[in-house]
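Researcher: Next entry: Platelet-derived growth factor receptor-like protein (Lates japonicus).
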Amino acid sequence: MKIWVVLCLALLWLELHDGDCQQVKRRKDVGENRIRPGGKRVKMRHPKLKDGGGKGQSLLTQVLDKGRFLRLGQSTTLTPGKNIELRCKGNNIGWSYPTYLDTFNDSRLSIKQSDKYGQLILTSPSAADTGSYSCWVIVCDGTECEKDHERTYVSYVYFIDKDNLFVPSAIHFEIVYLRPDSPAMVPCRVTDPQAIVTLHREVPPEEITANDTLVTYDPTKGFVLQSPSPEHQGVFYCKAVTKGTPQISVKYQLLYVEVPSGPPFVGLEASPESVRGGDNLNVTCTVLGEPEVDVSFTWSYPGQDRRPVHIFTSWRLVNRGMGHTTRVSQSVMTVEDMETIDFGKYICKAKNLHGETILMINIISK
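Model: Predicted structure:
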C-alpha cells in the first residue's frame, strides 16, 4: 500500500515538472518565432522607434572622405584650400552663400540638383569665402514656387587662416553711415571665431570698448554701435590677435547722416521764375537723402513726346555742419526756346527703396 502511494506521488511530481518546463519554453518562444499556416517559421520584427529630434535637425551636411557625412551646426570651422561639398536633402533646393561669389561670377562655385538632394561645391576655398551658407526646400504649387521657411538650414563657415585673421575685402577704405534711428555696423569679420578683436579710433588714438550694451561684437558681423551719435564719427580700424602677431583690418570712415530713412524728401523749383515765349526754362528736382541710397527721377511735362528737352541727373555728398552728411540728388530739365505748348504742369517723381514722392509746378506764360 505504501509503495502505491509513493509511486502515485512520484508520477504526480513528474507531471507537474513537465508542465512547468513546457510553460517556460512557451514563454521563451513568444516574441522570437512564429509558425505561419504554411509551416514556415518567421522571425518577429519589433517596430523601430522614431527619432524624436528628427524634425529639428539640419538637412545641411558636408560630404567627407570615404562616403562619410557631417551634419553642420550653427557654425563650422574648415581649412582653406581643401574643396568642400555641401548637400541638402530634397528634390528642389535653394542655396545662399557669400554674395561676392556672385558679384565676381566665381567659377570655383557650382550648384547642382539631383532627385534626392541639392549639391554645392566650392573648390580651393580661401579666407575670403568665410560667411553664411544656407539651403532651403522650395515648395511649388503649379507654376508658383516659394521658400519653405520652416525647412531652412544655415551654417556660418569659418575658413581659418592664420595669415588672414580678417575676411579679406576688395575695398581698402569703407564708408559706414551712422543714423540716429538705427544701429550701425563696422563690418570687420574674422576667419577665426577664437580671435580677440578690438575697435580703435585713429585720431585721437583710442580703443572703443565693447560693453554688450552700447557697443557689441559678433565675429560673423563685426562691431555694432547700438545708438550712433555724431561723436562716433571719424576713421576707425579693428585689431585681431590669436597666438601670433596682431593684425589690422581695413579702415572705416564713419559718417553721421542727417536725413533718416524714408521716401525721398523732394524740392521742385523753376528758373527763371517768370518766363515767356522764346525764353529758356530750367526745372530742378532736388532730393535730400541717405548717402548710400540711390534715387531715380521720372518726369512728365506739357510737350512730352512732341518737344525736345534736356535732362541732367547728378548727386553729391554734402557736409551740413555738426558732422551731418547728406546726399543731394538732382535732376534738371531744360526746355529751350519756350513755345505755347511748353506751358503747363511739370511733374517730378522721385523714387528710392523706401518709396516715392511726387511734386508738381505750374509754368504760366508771363
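Model: Note for the record: Helices lie at 2-29, 100-103.
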